[in-house]
Amino acid sequence: MQKTISLEPGKYYHLYTRGNNKETLFRHPDNYAYFLQPYRKYIAPCADTFAYCLLPNHVHFLVRIKEEEALRPLSISEDTKKLISVQRQLAHLLNAYAKTINSRYDRVGRLFQHRFGRREVTSEAYFTRLIYYIHFNPQHHGLINDFSDWPYSSYHSILSNSKTALQREHVLEWFGGRDCYKAFHEENAADFTPISPLIGEDDL
Which domains does the chain carry? Predict the structure, then answer.
């Protein structure tokens, strides 16, 4: 894994992690839904999410860390000069999910290989292609013939009108609307060339 970088307020990041020794993280369809519950609890207060994909043994997220003011504790009993630690919130997410899986499946030991890896998203082209890369991942790994059939990513949530915590309107506006969003995904079959130097083996 590359050198860990700090998660700074106002910046965009590709976050990813996988099961220890590539162990399966999601053994049953309802496991995927459960993972998103603590994600909303621990991560939504400190980061905006633009795209995600949950695969059997690894996960991807594209997020923007909220500005400093939003990261200050709300409780008057806490030191409001100290920002909420996004890294600690990510650890809480992984620990909460691991405890549930260990209990449900009578397993012990480490579930995740490491804490979340992260790469800063430093350009508009990277942001655009990364959304596609994240959604295309199930097809990229041979799990399915058409990425759009994978039910555990944000691809359809962004197209839906149902309630969501995703930054749906931002993503759709970024691509120029629903039709352009769909067209970009359909026309760029596995073309990661513009961001390939920024996607290494550690990115799964």
Answer: 12-199 (3.30.70.1290)
